[in-house]
Amino acid sequence: MAIEVWCEKAWGETPKKVSEWASNTEAVQVFLRLSASVLIADFELKNDGTLHIRQHLHIPLETWNPGSIQGIRTPEGKTRFSHRRQTIYLSSELRVPEWGAALLEDWLVSMRSDINRPKDRSQRVAEITRMRTSVQRNLETASVANVAKDINDLDMRIDRIGNTLAD
């Protein structure tokens, strides 16, 4: 859930798919499929349970060519994923580099075929509904009404504290 919230804030959309690369008490490393790109993200897991992004590698569909994602194991025991001039290093705990590269390539191939395939009416309606929901969430987040309510609550608290101190 925290990854989806981060993705919504950072990229403006919730991921279509999330695949875990590695996870332990200190870090979470995931592959994210967005609407027109894929993302490899390395998060640090804080003591309070929050996530902090350490590094990420973003691969947009328009800059991707089949076979351009490379995954290799380094002599230091890490897995290096690269696309063009971008590189990210992940742990090599559970999976082989070829699995990650193949998964990302698979997602991008299916995105490209989705773009080329005409959409039927129900797909277009679902896409518009998703976009509307996303815009509504962004508007609710940016709403001044919530801030005004918080200010009123704080003013009332200050008044109560002032009255208590005056007595």
Structure description:
This protein has 167 residues and is an alpha+beta fold. The protein is 44% helix and 30% strand. The chain has four helices and seven strands. It has helices spanning 2-11, 97-116, 121-141, 144-166, and strands spanning 17-23, 27-33, 37-45, 51-60, 69-73, 78-83, 86-91. Strands 1-2-3-4 form a four-stranded antiparallel sheet. It has a three-stranded antiparallel sheet with strand order 5-6-7, with helices on one face. It is flat. The mean pLDDT is 87.
Head-to-tail CA distance between termini: 47 Å
Order of helices and strands: HEEEEEEEHHH
The average pLDDT score comes to 87
Strand content: 25-35%
Summarize the amount of helix as a percent range.
40-55%
Q: What is the gist of this entry?
A:
By secondary structure, this protein is an alpha+beta fold. Helix content is 44%, strand content 30%.
Task: Please describe the topology of this protein.
Blueprint lengths: L1 H10 L5 E7 L3 E7 L3 E9 L5 E10 L8 E5 L4 E6 L2 E6 L5 H20 L4 H21 L2 H23 L1
Antiparallel strand pairs: 1-2, 2-3, 3-4, 5-6, 6-7
What are the salient characteristics of this protein?
167 residues; alpha+beta; four-stranded antiparallel beta sheet; flat
